[in-house]
Amino acid sequence: MTTECNQVTFEFHGLLQRKVKARFDGGKITSDAGVLLLREVEKRTGLVGGLAECFSDHRDPRLIEHTVKELLAQRVYGLCLGYEDLNDHDQLRTDPMLAVAVEKADPLGENRRQAGDRGKALAGKCTLNRFELTGAEVDAQERYKKIAMDGNKIDHWMVDAFLAAHESAPDEIVLDLDATDDTIHGHQEGRFYHGYYGNYCYLPLYIFAGEHLLCARLRRSNIDGADGSIDELERIVGQIRRSWPDVSIIIRADSGFCRDELLSWCEAHQVGYVVGLAKNNRLKREIAEQMTQAEAVFNDTGKPARVFKDFRYRTRDSWSCERRVIGKAEFLEKGANPRFVVTSLSLERLDARALYEDFYCARGDMENRIKEQQLDLFADRTSAATMRANQLRLYLSSAAYMLLHALRRLGLRNTDLARAQCGTIRLKLLKIGAQVRLTVRHIWVSMSEAYPYADTFDLVVRNLQALPLRC
Fold first, then answer.
1. CA distance 396 to 408
2. DSSP H/E element including 177
3. Is 470 a domain residue?
4. Spatial distance between the Cα atoms of 427 and 436, rounded to a whole number of angstroms
5. How far apart are CA 77 and CA 73, in angstroms?
6. Is the CB of residue 92 less than 8 Å from the CB of residue 80?
7. Same domain assignment for residues 107 and 177
8. Prediction pTM value
């Protein structure tokens, strides 16, 4: 990728008698040759193509140089490659490797209509920004903001991608719910201060099934963390059961979601639940004997001790019925550490220890998935003025996660990176320097001979190319 720089030559410390000088004059060189892997994933999953179908394009077809799919592919691939800002694309638009991944017929942009665009195959920031600026309805007189997203279709697309990732229906699905803070620093629509997090923030809701992302809903932070979760579950569970009517579904969440309305909805719709329960004095008294036992074991061994109790419990006012509760009486070096969960699962299915340690605690892995989105794929870049635009940004980050997860699931199996996080995948497999040469019949991508993960790259390509094409 070429760039312009006022300083034509950089001089570094010499090596013995040789001077060391550097310039941005290498020609058609990319730092992102691994984007070809993302293109192979897209060919086998159709994720970006499916996302493009969730947008309505009101532009004049005679004047379109960049289709909606091409624009979305450029934006999503850019996020996967580490380019979170639209400003980055004013330089990236000249990268022939990204243009190949987006499937531009003219990767060098030599045949663009406007003379000022020639040599720039891809869209610039102002064109890409039209996604965010377009409102829910497009006025007939609108000149530029004419690509409107349909949020309901995108929500449906995310669940469809999860269903398509399975050759057959699983016996059981566990849906993990969690809310997290998304700190904001401007005066965006929906800005509120959250006392727990100590910041002005949004409070997005995430729902995962294992590593599959099913919901990323941007919300104001002046709400209860469980608000809207029933609506999302009703939509997701309904869509799943239309395809897999016999699948068993269990939800798993922390105590922020322990609301009678949610538990009652699960009971009414044959959805199991294992949900954290905030401790109180009544619950502590319930496991007082077990806590004494745990403390005695700790005093004898000097090691953390746990004793579990399985009992029936009902709140005085807020619950509509009695439910099964598991109490963990734990004593640590710092003292007592009681914890509780409420569940609809039977004792025959899981005893108290297994339900807490093996099943409930496994929900912590969902937090790693949220961190991947926020730290690696810029889901916290919600600096647009409106909630709608920021929801779009969250959708795009979600699409980038889904694409990289598909690469991990399909391409990285049986490799050392099979469990790698998105940031590691980017660093080791996508950020590869290469020279790009175009001839009449070929696009040659000459990657560095010193690339240390060439064997892994070869295996990933083989894994992907063994799969059938979808688009």
1. 18
2. strand 172-179
3. no
4. 20
5. 6
6. no
7. no
8. 0.94
Question: 423 in a domain, yes or no?
Answer: yes
Number of independent structural domains in the chain: 2
Assess whether 306 and 394 both reside in one domain: no
8 within domain boundaries: no
Q: Please count the residues of the chain.
A: 471
Same domain, 170 and 317: yes
pLDDT values of the chain reduced to their tens digit, one per residue, 471 residues: 544 545 588 889 899 989 998 888 888 889 999 999 999 999 999 999 999 999 999 999 999 999 999 999 999 999 999 999 999 999 999 999 999 999 999 999 999 999 999 999 999 999 999 999 999 989 888 888 999 999 999 999 999 999 999 999 999 999 999 999 999 999 999 999 999 999 999 999 999 999 999 999 999 999 999 999 999 999 999 999 999 999 999 999 999 999 999 999 999 999 999 999 999 999 999 999 999 999 999 999 999 999 999 999 999 999 999 999 999 999 999 999 999 999 999 999 999 999 999 999 999 999 999 999 999 999 999 999 999 999 999 999 999 999 999 999 999 999 999 999 999 999 999 999 999 999 989 999 999 899 999 999 999 999 999 999 987
Using CA atoms, how far apart are residues 352 and 201, in angstroms rounded to an integer?
37
For residues 323 and 187, membership in a common domain is answered with yes
Angle at the Cα of 274 from the Cα atoms of 400 and 199, rounded to 5 degrees: 55
Cα separation, 146 vs 451, in Å, equals 43
Domain range spanning residue 285? 152-376
Helices (H) and strands (E) in the chain, counts: 17, 19
Given 319, 344, 376, the domain boundary residue is 376
Where is the domain boundary, 322, 348, 376? 376
Q: Are residues 197 and 225 in the same domain?
A: yes
